[in-house]
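re: that chain from earlier
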Amino acid sequence: MPSEKQKMLAGQPYDPADAELAADRARARGLCRSLNAGAADASVVQRDLLPLAHPSAVVSAPFFCDYGYHIALSEGVYFNVNCVLLDICMISVGANTLVGPGVHIYTVNHPLDVGRRRTGVEIGRPVTIGCDVWIGGACVICPGVEIGDGTVVAAGSVVTRSLPPGVLAAGNPCRVVRAIDGAG
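^ sequence. v structure.
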């Protein structure tokens, strides 16, 4: 029988109260606390918290995540302050992507049925953000979303559906406003 962590990693319903998962979250919280407190060895703390991040990726404190080991940051990625990544599934961010302050990225979802939701069971869907994307401040990116290369997401948007490459998107819910012609 698969462990709760194996179920979580496979995108199956799992129990987040599992002892192994609770210990992994506690580890990540401790590393976030060290990073956010301005640890003298912040690059070492970031490497321990985000083992799939390219060495050139920058994560500005304060920063918060559930596990850290599900966050893949490519070369030149920049996260501004106060970002929250709920990474029960993979969050992949392509090269040279800029993420504004206060952006939240969620991979966790809860059942709609109240009886099932009361059991505490969760399920996750990965988030994939392409290369050269700019995500404005205070955006929320929901589970299962993919954002195409070169796309710009306006500040305050709530991204509930995937966005194609090379567009400006805005709103709640976020919608494509227009194509980006490369001049802007």
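The chain has one domain: 4-179.
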